């Protein structure tokens, strides 16, 4: 299995003693013959590189992080992006997210919001909650494409259900204004209240919303929130 839960293609094969050792270290699988123990961080880093070159997505992702952060090798954002892209194309969810954020903010690569949105969607489909939130943000504000608050609400909703406070807040605000979803102050309050447990910004927004709500709606929202606990 890869780090994102997918079955590994039988086409991926490691060759050479160092690459075989990297496979054993990374995935805990048996290999034929004796496998040397890494004697230094340098050995480990070289084995990551061998495994990455041999086509293993998690090794490609780890190598990209090392280049990005300058861990045990000189920082090189272009090489980092190259390896994030390779791992992303091989289905690694976190690599897809890192590539998307680089394209979003122009880090190590020219900013490309439509391409960032595409990779955020791929990462979200692989279970990366923050990717769903960021895609929702792009869609809500029309960054890289026409604004689509209904699609934004769907992505915020997925991330909100997964427990991301920022998504809970944004989904609540959409319900409060009726953007992309039916206007529903009760549902808006419930989502914003969830976010407010860890977010001062959400607590402030909850206070503002309460000032605009009918007393019956506020009482119902509080009743539903308590019942859900």
List the helices and strands and how they pair.
Blueprint: H1 17-27, H2 41-53, H3 57-69, H4 77-89, H5 93-105, H6 113-125, H7 129-141, H8 149-161, H9 165-177, H10 185-196, H11 200-210, H12 215-228
Give a quick rundown of the structure.
The chain has 229 residues and is an all-alpha fold. It has helices spanning 17-27, 41-53, 57-69, 77-89, 93-105, 113-125, 129-141, 149-161, 165-177, 185-196, 200-210, 215-228.
Derived structural class: mainly alpha
| Poorly predicted regions | 1-35
Q: How can the largest sheet be summarized? A: none
Figure out the total of helices: 12
Distance between the termini: 36 Å
Q: Could you tell me the mean pLDDT?
A: 86
Fraction of helical residues? 55-70%
3D shape: elongated
Strand percentage: under 5%
> Whole-number radius of gyration?
22 Å
**What's the SSE pattern?**
HHHHHHHHHHHH
| Total number of beta strands | 0
Outline the structure in words:
- This protein has 229 residues and is an all-alpha fold.
- Helices cover 66% and strands 0% of the residues.
- The chain contains twelve helices and no strands.
- The protein has helices spanning 17-27, 41-53, 57-69, 77-89, 93-105, 113-125, 129-141, 149-161, 165-177, 185-196, 200-210, 215-228.
- α1 crosses α2, α3 runs antiparallel to α4 and α5 (93-105) runs antiparallel to α6.
- The longest helix is centred in the C-terminal third of the chain and has 14 residues, at 215-228.
- Residues 1-35 have low confidence and may be disordered.
